[in-house]
Design goal:
The complex is a heterodimer of chains A (267) and B (246).
Chain A: H1 3-18, H2 21-48, H3 55-85, H4 89-93, H5 99-129, H6 140-165, H7 170-173, H8 176-184, H9 195-202, H10 205-217, H11 224-255
Chain B: E1 4-13, E2 16-26, E3 31-35, H1 42-49, E4 57-62, E5 65-66, H2 71-75, E6 78-82, H3 93-103, H4 109-119, H5 135-147, E7 153-157, H6 165-182, E8 185-189, H7 193-199, E9 202-207, E10 210-215, H8 220-223, H9 229-238, H10 240-245
Parallel strand pairs in B: 3-8, 3-9, 6-7, 7-8
Antiparallel strand pairs in B: 1-2, 1-4, 4-5, 9-10
Helix pairs in contact in B: 3-4, 4-5
The chains are: A mainly alpha (267), B alpha/beta (246).
Amino acid sequence: MSFYRIFTIVLRQLYLIRGSFSRVFPLFAWIGVDMILWGFLTRYLNTVALPGFNFVPALLGAVLLWDFFGRIMQGVTIAFFEDVWSRNFLNIFATPLLISEYVSGLVLTSILTSLVGLVVMCVIATIFFKLSFFAYGLMVMPFLLVLFLFGIALGIFGSALVFRLGPASEWFIWPIPAFISPFAGVLYPISTLPHWMQFISKILPPAYVFEELRAIIQGRTVSWMPLVIATVLSLLYILLAYWLFTRIYRSALRSGLIARYSAESVS
Amino acid sequence: MPILSVTGLTKTYADTVAVDDISFSVHRNEIVGLLGPNGAGKTTTIDMILSILEPNAGVIAIDGLDISLHRSQAIARTNFSAVYTPLPGNLTVAQNLRIFGRLYSVKDLPSRIEEMLARFDLVKFRDKKCGVLSSGEQTRVSLAKSMLNNPQLLLLDEPTASLDPATARDIRVKMREFATQGGGGVLWTSHNMYEVEEICDRVLFLSHGKIILEGNPKTLPAQHRKKTLEELFIAVAREPLTLREN
């Protein structure tokens, strides 16, 4: 693997972002709106609820982490979509670039772009709503790590789907975080869910994150084993997503999909 | 050793045989024309050499490297330009050349980019987005990209299709210089038989996925009782079996 070529994929994205307001704006706009909306909601709930319970860390903290997860996933898929939108597959896959370098470049791009979003979220939450994200200190790092890894896995998975099904299928990818959120227990304990939904929650790493986040907020001791399980599950999903992407790439080599991608003739 | 060696290359899609057991080679300092009617298998062949399409059978070796075993090293020795594959329109000319130069690990890239911008008369378009350029200008950008890594094997799929006659002639001169002075080989497809006769040292006629004729474009028509290469092309398109028997 060549880090030089991996960074070239990142550089391409930086060129695109630098020259385009419509690419810069989404890096912070929607998460900013989310922070403000949920920030005021939690402030209102604090005025009407029983004293002693602070909704800010419980809801706003959860929304912040969920948005971080969504940014990571979209960071991967949008970098991939740039090649879809500019019909660049033939140019890029006819270079010495390895498929592992290409996927690594997408992931590295996502890390950089989602960091921008994370900083914006933390600034808004801290300044306007007194949610000190760093008050949890190093305890927050495992939560971020799990969400980061799972976001990467879903980003690669989503890119693989669009690679296989064609440009129009990108609309399957945007709602994926929304489909997962009811099962992940972002805003409520998993025990609230019916049994069959709880079963699905068990295979979703974010569900472990938000359960333990609530434990911290309620002053309970954090149990590290669920976070270990979530990390292992996330790593497994990354491997599965990467396997799927390379399998679809190899299938595309056999079917001629790369040369006729925009025709959606192989879907 | 040829710079490109193709042996027993075959590609089928379901019941359709797109390329049918073809073998040929391209040597250094040689420009080989790959000719044939639409759907003959020219682009499929080029796609397989570029390793974006996997053959059902056959071996492709670039500078002695089997692309099925040493894909990245073999592809680093090639480059291509195709009329149907413009570079991303949302990047500037200089950005596109930088990105692709890096993907091909071009040494001393900034000066090489300047050289290519000057050679293809693109200096004034350096900071223009490729999408706003005319089709002829985009073709020149694509050709500049294809020469960035000074490839041993250059694949050109209808490289002059969108160029005016003066620019097309200029490009032919540059490609001839590349082949004679650079030590590389060129595989060139075109439907302009005048151009093919002028630039190609050897031509291969493809029909229904098979190579049915091969030879010098200046002498091949007479060998098949045709006045011009264009007449021969039309005969290949309409009555390929007759020609195979000649």
